[in-house]
What does this fold into?
Amino acid sequence: MAHITPMATLAKQMKSNRIVVGTKVPHPCGDPNQPGEADHALRREIVRTALKALQTEVSGPTVFVPDISYTSG
Amino acid sequence: MRLELASFPVKDVRFDGRTRYDGGVLEINKEELVNLVLEDGKIAWTNLDCAFPTEQTRIVRVRDAVEPRLKVSGPGCVFPGILGPVETVGQGRTNRLSGVTVITSAVYERTILSGGAAGRTALVDMWGPAAQLTPFGSTINVVLMLELRSGVTELEAHAAIQMAELRVAQRLAETTRERTAEDVEVFELFETDPSLPRVVYILGCRTAWHEPHSGVAFYGLPIRESLPTLVHPNEFLDGAATSDARRGGKGTFPSTWEWMNHPIILRLLREHGKRLNFLGVILQRTRFETDFGKQVTAACTSQMARLLKADGAVITRMSPSGNNFIDVMLTVQACEKKGVRTVLLTPEWGGREGTESPLVFYVPEASAMVTTGNLDRVITFPEPAKVIGAGDSDIVELAVGDPSIIPSTSFVGDTGYVQDGIDWWGGTRHSCKAY
It folds into this structure.
């Protein structure tokens, strides 16, 4: 299982094994405030990272960081 | 900044004669206040009633509560930015009618029907188990009932309810102007013995950027995504912080009354120069939606505490939001890492049985905590003799998704049903114990 969440520290505490860093609490897989294309690119990279995480052997909580730049608070 | 808070205790409230305060009795001319409220064209109907402690009375559709206060000298007014211009308050003299509140019970047609931004209500019981959960179980409550005209927006509803409530409170407090106070308490952050521990209060303030009203306003300005600000504690005593008057209810957010009578701020002010040196209040907006935002607010808030040369910080929150709680815990951690020792005061999520994980998130640095009881405690609300704010056969919804209640009957609910029934700031004696 891969767990997409903006709160990686919390996911670690809950002992999720494959943690994928998402964007916002209400929108873990994207940002509806961004133009459609940019939102789509964000979502795509996050889901790709999750698929990669699923194919990776882990031995405890491991954080996977998508290659996105995201600065909105 | 020196503030004299002059108390005029109210032992009885009567609806007769002209509006005046004499010998502990508050007389209210109902017609005068009804006309005052109806000056706002958005209000279709209003009436007033009163609820006394120990009476078997239930107040429903509660949106907010305030204490009647009046600025008699010094800059600004009580509720600056709302009842008057924005001027820094907390100086001079403020009169308060103590032991009495204005509780607002309001009905309007909601346009937001789901989610956290939807309007909500709570209840107050003047007797029985629920009366012990809230400060309003032991105050005399003047209940202002309102029905708003149809077609108001959510923000207009907030403004109309709040303005009616504050103007009625201000009018009642006016009665103290020529009277002699029974008690005057002075609040001032004077120079102290330098050996006293330097203490700051970090007041975590949960607001939402995307809702019509963010939840808490400072000088009338709803606080949205922003960095922490430093506030003199006296400002709160003059009503600088106010709640969203559409949803002070459902017990999960403190009412305006709580902000004016903040137990931690009052206690730290009273201990100033005795046991500690109170440096001020850091009002910290919380509930950032990204981990990044949470880290920024934690870093800025702890840095402010360090720049104040704080030895210690008391930290609290004001919402059951788990999202919000992460910001608070990260702030505890950031303060400890900067050498500011912390005490976190919070109620717990125990679940109805009291056996669930009490905190959704924790950091090892949070090694000193005070519990103020269980958020989810189950209560059987008994059948009342009188209901204020609804007819006997009315069905009342508290919050979206909660079962509706028939106020004239007995039902089972939890602490969240009660206005200010959850103790965010340690004003009650509630706690949790392991057994």
Observations:
- Chain A is about 35% helix and 15% strand.
- Residues 2-55 of chain A form one domain.
